[in-house]
Amino acid sequence: MTQILDWRPEPGEVVEFELTTDRVPEPHDVPASHFQSVHLRLAADHRASGRRQSPWAGVKFDLPGRADLDALTAAWQGLVRRHEAFHTWYEPDADGLPGFRLPPGSLTVRPSRVGDFTDPAGLRAYLHRRIDEQTAVSWPGLTAGVIRRDTSSTVYFAVDHAYTDGHSLALLFDEIRTRYQAALGGAPADLAPAPGYLDCNLRERDRSASLTTAAPELAVWSEFLEAGGGGFPDFPVGVGNDADELLPGTRVRYPVLTGDQARAFRAYCARHGGGFGAGAFAALALAQREFTGNDVYRVLTVVSTRAYPQLLQVHGWLVNFVPLLFRLPASPALPDAIAVAQQGFQRARAGYDVPMYRAIELLGGHVPSIPPMVSYLDGRSAPGSRDYLGADATVLTGPDNARGVSLWINWFPDRADLVVNMPDTAEAAAGVPKYVDRVREIMLARSGR
Questions:
Q1: Contact at 8 Å (CB) between 142 and 171?
Q2: N or C: which end of the chain has fewer CB within 10 A?
Q3: pLDDT averaged over the chain?
Q4: What was the pLDDT predicted at 332?
Q5: What is the pLDDT of residue 449?
Q6: Are strands 152-160 and 99-101 parallel, antiparallel or unpaired?
Q7: Global pTM?
Q8: Count of CB atoms within 10 A of residue 19's CB?
Q9: CA 311, 188, 80, 75 torsion: positive or negative?
Q10: CB atoms within 10 A of CB 167
């Protein structure tokens, strides 16, 4: 995970892939998801007030040699026609978020040569501007291109976050490469039709409508809020944002475990009644107790709402925040903490289909525009994950904003990383790394180093 301002792309010839259609968009009546609604409204407010924002997510990766434009064009055209996220969308207006769609067969992709770049900083500035411009419009809401060189070429892609998530970006990495190789060989990619995200939106809205203040599914949310006096948790160290404002953020990646160490840590956790994620949350909780004396650990964590295997092919923003809550045992040892963290994790995940925004609304609370959270992702089983390192595959994001601290714990075949997004303040820069280092020490102590 890399902020685009920290990316140093190697110069070359830039070619963009333009998405066009000869059809007029038609309205559809499927409501936006809760996450989409909040995201699209906030982005529209920022644009109306003249604030620059980069509410997109992207990925970049390398292909060997000078990329074949015909093959890449065919790959992108097949992808955008296959996935509903690229031909259905929402447009914020004064009355709501009306939806629109295009026939997928009407979509055409064509390459457009931009020119040669020789300066990495100038190239990055151009790509940042183009991504912001293209993802800010309602449709297509994405940009794609390639930086061509004789030795290797870098494919890049970014889409409004309302229509993508980390799982989707992993799918894209694998599908573009699969389609590209097939096109080079003159063969069809032979990929089955993929389900669309609009059906998922309908299921979420039906689930929201079924909830009431008396719903037993809200019990875990009630306990989570009551444990903090009705609010969301603070980070264990100060971050210099007492006014709780949205500040410029900074992102730091910490290597935690090598591939061998991560597998050893997972085995240790299994012997004590939990998985890798439970072990990581236990380490976070133990470090919190050392810093604050608080033995109740609360955090929002991210879960996928792809409830069954067929949905694993859906490109969209199919996530939810769930409330993770557990109390550490009197013993400060990691083994006992793993067991209670696993129990809390399982209970939180059981509510994967209870939309956070609806739950908080029913309970009379308020969700911050950027809620504090910890995400755990096991990316080892994603299609093509073993090629990430060789392809220099990287998730790209826009410049960060932050109120508090967000953490991403990502486990890949060769390593486990901890990525931190925090306010760009002196207090956060002094305190957050100390807490993260202690978390790493606790995990390393049980990984065989």
A1: no
A2: C
A3: 94
A4: 77
A5: 59
A6: unpaired
A7: 0.94
A8: 21
A9: positive
A10: 21
The rounded distance, in Å, linking the Cα atoms of 212 and 215 is 5
Q: So what's the pLDDT on residue 95?
A: 80
- The CB-side HSE value for 7 (13 A sphere, CA atoms) comes to 28
Which two three-digit tokens encode residue 177? 């490469």
Query: What's the per-residue H, E or C state across the chain?
Result: CEEHHHCCCCCCEEEEEEEECCCCCEEECCCCCHHHHHHHHHHHHHHHCCCCCCCEEEEEEEEECCCCHHHHHHHHHHHHHHCHHHCEEECCECCECCEEECCHHHCEEEEEEEEECCCHHHHHHHHHHHHHHHHHCCCCCEEEEEEECCCEEEEEEEEEHHHCCHHHHHHHHHHHHHHHHHHHCCCCCCCCCCCCHHHHHHHHHHHHHHCCCCCHHHHHHHHHHHCCCCCCCCCCCCCCCCCCCCEEEEEEEEEEEEHHHHHHHHHHHHHCCCCHHHHHHHHHHHHHHHHHCCCEEEEEEEEECCCCHHHHHCCCCCEEEEEEEEECCCCCCHHHHHHHHHHHHHHHHCCCCCCHHHHHHHCCCCCCCCCCEEEEEEHHHCCCHHHCCCCCCEEEECCCEECCCEEEEEEECCEEEEEEEEECCHHHHHHHHHHHHHHHHHHHCCCCC
Question: In which residue ranges of the chain is pLDDT below 70?
Answer: 448-449
Q: What is the pLDDT of residue 427?
A: 97
Cα 152 to Cα 63, 334, 396, 437: the distances in Å are: 6, 46, 19, 36
Sheet of 247-258, strands arranged across: 319-327, 296-304, 373-378, 406-412, 415-423, 247-258, 401-402
pLDDT digits (tens, 9 = 90+) for 201-258: 999 999 999 999 999 999 999 999 999 898 899 999 999 998 888 889 999 999 999 9
- Is residue 194 within 8 A of residue 171, CB to CB? The reply is no
Tally the residues of the chain.
449
CA distances from 275 to 85, 102, 288, 301, 423 (A): 33, 43, 20, 15, 31
Q: Any bridge partners for residue 302, and if so which?
A: 321
- Residue 52 has which token pair? 């620059």
Whole-number Å distance between alpha carbons of 159 and 131 = 8
